[in-house]
Design a protein that fits this description.
By secondary structure, the chain is mainly alpha-helical. It has a domain at 31-114. It is 58% helix and 5% strand. Strands 1-2 form a two-stranded antiparallel sheet. The longest helix has 64 residues, at 82-145. The N and C termini lie far apart (91 Å). Bound molecules: zinc ion. Zinc ion (ZN) binds next to helix 3. Residues 52, 54-55, 58, 80-81, 83-84 line the site of zinc ion (ZN).
Length: 146
């Protein structure tokens, strides 16, 4: 019986499972971690303070990233209250506004292209009309000659 077709025993499966634990199992992605796993990683290493790290008045609410690069670094995160966190998000919204401008530009280009096409269609139509009239006259002349 070929090895690949042999049914894995329970014990064998457990061995494979253990071998895949830790750095080998794909959960560890170095600095390239997903949003939520990274938050979990930071939360484990950075205890949540009682108060917001920014205003130090209101209760801390959320773990917020400072650089926007989501580094695997506890110093790149801070616990903020709702209000400070929203202010931070406002900073991000400015970036989104930039993307909106890009989108509007794309729409503007589309519009211009449409107008360009419409104008050209008219040109093509006129060209075709002239060609058609010319041929019609030629045909008529031919008919007359016969
Ligand atoms: Zn605050």
């Amino acid at each position: 019986m070929p090895l690949s077709k042999k049914k894995l025993t329970y014990e064998h499966k457990m061995k494979i499972g253990k071998a895949n634990l830790g750095k080998k199992n794909g959960m560890w992605k170095g600095n390239n971690v997903g949003y939520f796993p990274l938050h979990e990683w930071i939360k484990k290493r950075k205890p949540k303070p009682k108060f917001c790290e920014k205003c130090k008045i209101r209760k801390s609410y959320d773990l917020a990233n400072i650089s926007g690069n989501y580094k695997r670094d506890v110093n790149d995160f801070e616990y903020l209250c709702r209000k400070c966190h929203m202010n931070e998000d406002g900073r991000l919204k400015k970036l989104q506004g930039f993307n909106d401008n890009k989108r509007i530009n794309a729409e503007e280009k589309k519009k211009r292209y449409k107008i360009y096409c419409q104008k050209n269609r008219e040109k093509i139509r006129l060209k075709y009309k002239r060609w058609y009239e010319k041929n019609k006259i030629k045909k008529l002349n031919k008919g007359k000659q016969k």
